[in-house]
Specification:
Blueprint lengths: L1 H43 L9 H9 L1 H11 L6 H18 L10 H21 L6 H30 L6 H8 L1 H4 L2 H14 L1
Helix pairs in contact: 1-6, 3-4, 4-5, 5-6
Length: 201
Amino acid sequence: MKVFLYSLSLLVLTLISCENENQQLEAQKVAQKNEAVFKNISKMWQFNFPTPRPEVATTLDRWNEWRQFEIEMLQKPQSTLSAFQMKTKNLSKKADTLALTVPFEYNKPQILSRITTLNTKLKSLETFMNLRVIPEQRIAKLIPEINEEIKGLYKQWDEIIIKKAIPKEIGEELMLQALDTTRNANPDEMRKKMEISDKIK
């Protein structure tokens, strides 16, 4: 009976030992894979911000959220894969505030559209970076796309400055005001008409 118990306990210990070794081997493989992924992503992780024209630079210097966003984008994580994962979360949060804080002169549909697209791509980057198996090929494709969106924003800002500098023809301002129905609308008159309409009902 003692021999049986001894054999049984030896078998259990051997099984536990094998399981521990398997877990350690698995952990080593995961660590090696993560290290390789970290090195690859570290090589790809390069964001570029064009040099803006002086007029654009003046506005961007006053736009605190954009400055914070740019600083966050240009600071590359140095330590681990989880540092990249945290970075993408921070970038995503900062990108969320951009559309809400756009300076008045840049608060135009084409600018807001570009910011939304940039934000969407950053959210995709965050999603890919936080998957259990990180799709490196998708990240390799996404980083240049994000750079293109940033470049597109700068071009759009330049275009606004260029258009503003073009002198208007005689009478053009009056014609534009006549076409602007929101400016021509009289809220007091509208309110009176609505009150009359309510009384009739």
